Amino acid sequence: MKKGALIAFLTAVVFAVVLWQLPRTAFENAPEVVSEEGNPLDEKVDEAVAIIQNGEGAPMQAIGMLLEVLREDPNHEKALLWLGNFSMMSGQWDKAVDRFHQLSQLHPDNELYTLNKAQALIQVGDTAAALSSANNYLNTYPEANRVKEFAEGL
Asked: Which string of DSSP letters, residue by residue, matches 35-64?
């Protein structure tokens, strides 16, 4: 087997194991995203998250379902939130930055989205961008204690 193919295979196996080991309970800090009853995209997101959390299906199939939701609605909040959370959990920090950046643009008042974006930026080695993101948020929302603590810790 070629070295590149072996590395790709091992990476896929490690990623699958990481997803398999994901917690099977709701995220403690994940905001409750209120949605319309019977919205098929929300139902698809809920189904995908349940697959991952319950460990009752293929995690990559669930991620595919979330990506399908974004193909239909590129700004779907719940899909972006969960893809961002799963990206953080699996160490895919660049993807987490992208997801939480998009969420913080769509919902600039959401402290958690800004905080997660800044934390992911730290993980990709961009401390300056993380501090800038936190400070920009604090300029508008000076009472955001979690972001303030984060910025002071940098």
From this structure: --TT-HHHHHHHHHHHHHHHT-S-HHHHHH
- Residue 45 sits at the vertex; the CA angle it makes with 44 and 47, to the nearest 5 degrees, is 65
Residues 70/83, Cβ–Cβ less than 8 Å: yes
Report yes or no: 33 and 81 within 8 Å, Cβ to Cβ: yes
Render pLDDT for 30-85 as a digit per residue (tens, 0 to 9): 444 444 567 999 999 999 999 988 888 888 999 999 999 999 999 999 999 999 99
d(CA 129, CA 127): 5
Q: What are the angstrom distances between the C-alpha of 50 and each of 23, 65, 103?
A: 11, 12, 22
Record the tokens describing residue 40, joined without a space. 């098929």
Q: The domain at 37-152 falls in which architecture?
A: Alpha Horseshoe (1.25)
What is the spatial distance between Cα 154 and Cα 138, in angstroms, rounded to a whole number?
14
